[in-house]
Amino acid sequence: MRPAISVDKNVTSPGVMYAALTDGGFNVPEVPYLKVKPEFRRQIVVDTTGEAPGTIVVHLKERMLYLVQPGGDAIRYGVGIGKDGFRWSGRANIQYGREWPTWTPPPEMIARKPELVKWQAGQPGGLTNPLGARALYIYQDGKDTGYRIHGSPEWRSIGQAMSSGCVRLINQDIIDLYSRVSKKNPVVVV
Asked: What is the pLDDT of residue 46?
């Protein structure tokens, strides 16, 4: 018999989880969670991934990220994913993470969107930075994949396929996920 779902003080009511907060000197605005589909809000669910505790599993088709917990459950977060032709899938690891990271668009993105040239040396972390409040850097076989699991100021993009390939979460959710993972957590993107 499966154990009871764990109780986690950080997975509570949406009004608490998505409230405004101050983090790293930035005032992160409240997310109007009633405008976010209930299935895309952070919650504890039965783990169906078959992966070991500590593994981050991204289901691209579902637009969900699971952090596998001991005891048969997972913390599920709604995500936005890459547009067709920009997605990555496979097995890898989190090499490191950053709070309020600098975002540097790759040259191929600047070629598609020349207005981004102003950030070719990097956009400082902040509320309008595309990486949001946190970024987890995905490496495969010791090499940077170029893909990240990161926050986003664009909470409306959760559940959509509109990024340049990265997996994006609501800022409050990436802050929560970041607090739960460490360097070398396995990542599976399917």
From this structure: 94
d(CA 184, CA 164): 24
CA atoms within 13 A on the CB side of 133: 24
The Cα-based distances of 146 to 28, 96, 103, 161, 174 in angstroms read 26, 13, 12, 18, 18
Kindly provide the b/e burial profile for residues 116-137, where b requires at least 16 CB atoms within 10 angstroms of the residue's own CB: beebeeebebbeebbbbbbbbb
Q: Write out the two tokens for 117.
A: 């040239």
Candidates 75, 166, 170, 181; catalytic one: 166
The C-alpha angle with vertex 42 and arms to 147 and 154, in degrees rounded to 5, equals 55
Annotated active-site residue 166? The verdict is: yes
Residue 167's Cβ-count burial label (10 Å; 0-12, 13-18, 19+) is: buried
pLDDT of residue 1: 43
Out of 41, 76, 150, 168, which one is annotated catalytic? 150
Report, as ranges of residue numbers, the positions in the chain whose pLDDT lies below 50.
1-4
All domains in the chain, ordered by first residue? 14-189 (2.40.440.10)
Residue 59 annotated in active site: no
pLDDT of res. 84: 78
Give 44-56 pLDDT, tens digit per residue. 999 999 999 999 9
